[in-house]
Amino acid sequence: MKKNKNNANQHVAIIGGGIAGLEAARALLGLGYRPVIIEKSDRTGGHVADWHRLFPDMSPAKDIVERLRRETEGARTLLQTEIYAAGRLGNDYTLTLSDGNTLRAGAVLFSTGFDLFEAAKKEEYGYGIYDQVMTNADLERWFNGGGDKRLDGKEIRRIGFVHCVGSRDVKAGNAQCSKVCCITAIKQAIEMKEKFPDAEIWCFYMDLRLFGKKYEDFYIGAQRDYGIHFIRGRVSEVSENIEGRVIVKAEDTLAGKPVKVSLDVLVLMSGMVCNRQVHGLACQLSLGVDEDGFLKSRDNIASITESDNRGIFYAGAVTGPKTVPETLAEARSAALSIHAYLSAQ
Amino acid sequence: MMEFGFSLSPSSAVDLDKVDTSRFDRLVEMEPQARICIGCGSCSATCTAEPYSGMSVRKVLLGLQRGRDAEVDRMLAACMLCGKCTMVCPRGINTRHLILSLCRISGKGKEGKA
Q: Is B35 a domain residue?
């Protein structure tokens, strides 16, 4: 691919410094552009920076985040910066930033990612009500060495995982499948079995959606090598007994019988939901928003990284739940689309 | 006792805290594949005995893990060891061999009687 020569100073605004934004910035730098990453938090890396290990190879999440940070050092990165307003000026876009500056860019990439479903909204699962209920994100934080009173110094012999928390749940406002939680639950169940070898572990699922490379191997391994139990049935209610243990009730739909089990800790697999903070900006730029709240691609098959507006592009979970490799591939694809767009100007 | 004209049925709920899975654990020692069943039902659908007896390898494996031993024994007695279930299992479980091992553990069949 020919490097961009005519527009060597042309700025590309990248909204969101998670792995999608970083990977796109890396690719755009390589093509001779000057990407500007606008990140609302005080660090880049997004959700992946909070994760410990990534399926299916158990590779450390920090490896990929640190590599991307290193390889985007040439890009201007604005941390703790939000966008107050956005508009069109000729062929360009102007963004009014919270630091008082205005950024003019030839193209804008939305890599604004997703939000993790707030588990406390599913009151019946008891997050924030019972002591021994935690989320997938809490567990990753603990794997990363952050202490957690639900696990530290406790005798953990019985562990439960609830799949689809806030996902495939029309009443919770999220009809979509969050896609990565099935495999994440299996990954975390294996990691917990390694930390607590004597523990019995149950996963409560509706369907197991193990679509990706090596995912099914992971599932067989969890059953065969780690003895993790899988119960097909959605947890209906959680309560706490006098010893502070969590009592889980579900139907084992394969047996056609209600089941009950007491656990030392229950992990809720919070799903990916849309990032609502981006809706205001989407509205100002007349971008389409899908029924699930994720931004609408021009076409869900042929041009997932393009919006209906010329010069505005998408990468990663801004358009729906995505895995890490999908997000990275989309970021590179969006960078090439941006290059093609700006070269044709 | 006062007769009210109705009686209480015992709960059909399975309490996993109380279920004795020792028979399943012994089976896993002999047949590690017992753990990798995904409950697809291929074995039950192809079973020659199933329509007449309710035999189902899937239900046998699940029943052992849910403390439903009487049902498991009833189903085992109906198996004719034809091995059709082994042919259809997508996870490659040797179900016929698994049933034989389970009969040994349960003391059923000729060897059990000896």
A: yes
Domains detected in chain A: 11-113+275-343 (3.50.50.60), 119-272 (3.50.50.60)
d(CA A36, CA A105): 9
A319 burial via Cβ count (<10 Å: 0-12, 13-18, 19+)? buried
What phi, psi does A323 have (nearest 5°)?
Answer: -85, 170
Q: Is B62 on the interface with A (CB under 8 A)?
A: yes
> B-contacting residues of A 233-262, CB under 8 Å?
252, 254-255, 257-262
- By Cβ distance, the residue of B13, B17, B65 closest to A262 is B17
pLDDT at B112: 40
Amino acid of residue B44 = S
Q: Is a pLDDT exceeding 50 seen at residue B111?
A: no
Domain assignment present for residue B7? The answer is no
Q: Which residues in B lie closer than 8 A to residue A229 (C-beta atoms)?
A: 65
How many CA atoms lie within 13 Å of A146's alpha carbon, on the beta-carbon side?
A: 10
Q: Which of A186, A208, A215, A224 to mutate to test the interface with B (most CBs of B within 10 A)?
A: A224
A4: Cβ–Cβ under 8 A, 6 or more apart, which residues? A10, A31, A32, A33, A339, A342, A343
- The answer to whether position B93 is within a domain reads yes
Q: Is the dihedral of CA B83, B84, B87, B88 positive or negative?
A: negative
Alpha-carbon distances of A10 from A29, A34, A36, A38, A339, rounded to whole Å: 11, 6, 10, 16, 11
Domain extent at residue B37: 22-109
Partner residues linked to A116 by β-bridges: A272
* Interface predicted TM-score (ipTM): 0.87
Tens-place pLDDT, residues B29-38? 999 999 999 9
Q: Is residue B49 part of a domain?
A: yes
Q: What one-character-per-residue DSSP string does chain B give? A: ----S--PPPP--EETTT---HHHHHHHHH-GGGGG-----HHHHH-SSHHHH---HHHHHHHHHTT-HHHHHHHHHH-----HHHHH-TT---HHHHHHHHHHHHT-HHHHH-
Residues A59-68 have pLDDT tens digits of 999 999 999 9
- If one counts the domains in chain B, the total is 1
Which of B16, B36, B68 has its CB closest to that of A220? Answer: B36
Q: Answer yes or no: do B13 and A260 touch at CB < 8 A.
A: yes
Residue A83 · residue A96 · CB < 8 Å: yes
